[in-house]
Amino acid sequence: MKDIYRGTLVRLSDDSPELLAKAFARWDRDTEQHRLADSDPAQLWSEKKIKEFQEKRAETNSKSFRFSIHSLDEDKLIGGVGLWISSWTHAETWLGISIGERDYWGRGYGTDAMRLAVQYAFLELGLRRVSLGLHAYNERALKSYQKVGFKLEGRMRGEGLRDGVRYDSLWMGILREEWLALAETK
């Protein structure tokens, strides 16, 4: 059987709250990274606060599946990816990803992690639909998601505000049958 947590460039894992807190606190200081991954205002959190948040979230949320992303070449923690079940009844989930290590941006690591997360959603969780949202200015993410097979489903004009400038939010999705058809061509 295939290792569902291992891609061509990355592997998904579950790291200790201490390791995650140290990395996320460092990545949080990179405002560009934050603005690519999140629509909330940038906010600095201490390692202690992040660790407590991670531990509490792990205990209370049975509808989320979160993974750390490690590079295969160096086994370095480079980011995180998560699935949040919006409806078990309708077999739908939302996906979020962040590559915190700048040296790994634009080199295929995020795309590989996305492929693993989508595969996990469809094959391991038995879901039918994976959705995500992104900022229109994040062109690198848009291209990555399209490589995985996501289709643009909507645009909210002027939904966000950064540095006094309005930007659009984009909504994308992929259905199980679309993903299976793509998998057959590879």
What's the total number of strands? 7
How are helices and strands ordered from N to C?
EHHHEEEHEHEEH
| Overall pLDDT | 92
Strand content: 25-35%
CATH architecture: 3-Layer(aba) Sandwich
End-to-end gap: 18 Å
Q: Note the main sheet.
A: 7 strands, mixed
What is the CATH superfamily classification? Gcn5-related N-acetyltransferase (GNAT)
Spell out the blueprint of helices and strands.
Layout: E1 10-13, H1 17-28, H2 31-37, H3 47-60, E2 64-71, E3 77-87, E4 92-99, H4 109-124, E5 129-135, H5 139-148, E6 151-162, E7 165-175, H6 176-185
Parallel strand pairs: 4-5
Antiparallel strand pairs: 1-2, 2-3, 3-4, 5-7, 6-7
Polypeptide structure, described:
By secondary structure, the chain is α+β, with helices and mostly antiparallel strands. The protein has one domain: Aminopeptidase (3-Layer(aba) Sandwich). 37% of the residues lie in helices and 33% in strands. A seven-stranded mixed sheet has the order 1-2-3-4-5-7-6, sandwiched between helices. The chain is globular, with a radius of gyration of 16 Å. The two termini are 18 Å apart. The mean pLDDT is 92.
